[in-house]
């Protein structure tokens, strides 16, 4: 069951409304005493419905969760669609310059503060969640993948596990390296991170940067599941195929 409503994020876009997508497990109404982990996601409009997806193809995540009866609530937020790098700005922890994109102001911290201080309390109040850190996850792809990695490390007191699919590791790599080195991440922190073999050439030195970040994470003791996806590309159709892999990592060993 997927519920949808609109919200505003005043700190980012004032009174402009954007969609919230909330997936509830199939047994949610039949098991009124049961509580569930929550997976927070970026680019919510691309997660469930082809009709809402930017390029007409979603992850179809709800269908997978229903088919395999995964005991998980998913709370996904639509991105900023402003043509002046609105999404990039909200989904970047760091201000950066790119020859093709120009100057992008990093407002990722504002975005994550809203997720943690406003959005999560609403979800925990309205739905039967397991609100503790152990059962609170975050995931996304591309810039949303970068934000998921950032959230796991910078907000580790809130999120214990994350999935970063095709993360935009080309954004401010030196700042990202400092984040990994200095993060106060607990020893039980879990991360799924992948990259498609067909997208490695999209940015210069992407393969070496991916390997560098993997090494840095392992050196910090992050419990990492890492993949180069054979034939994987930078699109929703490819990320949909990775659902079984990252869900296995997020749910592994949990008793729910």
Q: State the CATH class.
A: Alpha Beta
Give the strand line-up of the largest sheet.
Answer: 1-2-4-3-7-8-9-10
CATH architecture label: 3-Layer(aba) Sandwich
- Tally the beta strands: 10
- Low-confidence segments, given as residue ranges, are none
Radius of gyration: 17 Å
Beta-strand percentage range? 15-25%
Description:
By secondary structure, the protein is of the alpha/beta class. The chain has a single domain, classed as Alpha/Beta hydrolase fold, catalytic domain (Rossmann fold, 3-Layer(aba) Sandwich), CATH 3.40.50. 34% of the residues lie in helices and 21% in strands. It contains 9 helices and 10 strands. An 8-stranded mixed beta sheet has the order 1-2-4-3-7-8-9-10, sandwiched between helices. Strands 5-6 form a two-stranded antiparallel ribbon. Strand 9, helix 7 (206-219) and strand 10 (223-229) form a beta-alpha-beta unit. Helix 6 (173-182) runs parallel beside helix 7. It starts with a strand and ends in a 5-residue tail after the last helix.
Q: What are the SSEs and their pairings?
A:
Blueprint: E1 2-8, H1 10-13, E2 17-23, E3 38-41, H2 61-67, E4 73-77, H3 86-90, E5 96-98, E6 102-104, H4 108-126, E7 136-141, H5 143-154, E8 161-165, H6 173-182, E9 190-196, H7 206-219, E10 223-229, H8 236-241, H9 243-251
Parallel strand pairs: 3-4, 3-7, 7-8, 8-9, 9-10
Antiparallel strand pairs: 1-2, 2-4, 5-6
Helix pairs in contact: 6-7
């Amino acid at each position: 069951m997927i519920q949808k409503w609109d919200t505003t994020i005043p700190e980012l876009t004032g009174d402009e409304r954007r969609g919230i997508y909330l997936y509830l497990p199939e047994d949610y109404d039949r098991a009124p005493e049961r509580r569930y982990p929550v997976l927070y996601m970026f680019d919510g409009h691309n997660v469930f419905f082809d009709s809402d997806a930017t390029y007409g193809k979603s992850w179809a995540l709800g269908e997978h969760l229903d088919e395999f009866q995964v005991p998980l609530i998913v709370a996904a937020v639509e991105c900023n669609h402003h043509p002046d790098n609105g999404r990039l700005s909200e989904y970047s922890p760091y201000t950066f310059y790119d020859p093709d994109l120009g100057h992008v102001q990093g407002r990722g911290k504002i975005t994550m503060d809203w997720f943690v201080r406003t959005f999560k309390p609403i979800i925990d109040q309205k739905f039967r969640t397991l609100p503790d850190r152990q059962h609170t996850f975050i995931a996304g792809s591309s810039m949303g993948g970068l934000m998921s990695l950032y959230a796991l490390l910078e907000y580790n007191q809130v999120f214990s596990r994350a999935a970063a699919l095709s993360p935009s590791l080309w954004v401010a790599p030196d700042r990202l390296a400092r984040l990994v080195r200095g993060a106060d991440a607990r020893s039980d922190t879990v991360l799924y991170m992948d990259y498609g073999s067909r997208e490695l050439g999209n940015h210069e030195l992407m393969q070496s940067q991916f390997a560098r970040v993997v090494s840095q994470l392992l050196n910090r003791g992050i419990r990492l599941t890492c993949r180069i996806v054979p034939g994987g590309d930078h699109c929703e159709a490819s990320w949909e195929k990775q659902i079984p892999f990252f869900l296995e990592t997020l749910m592994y060993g949990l008793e729910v």
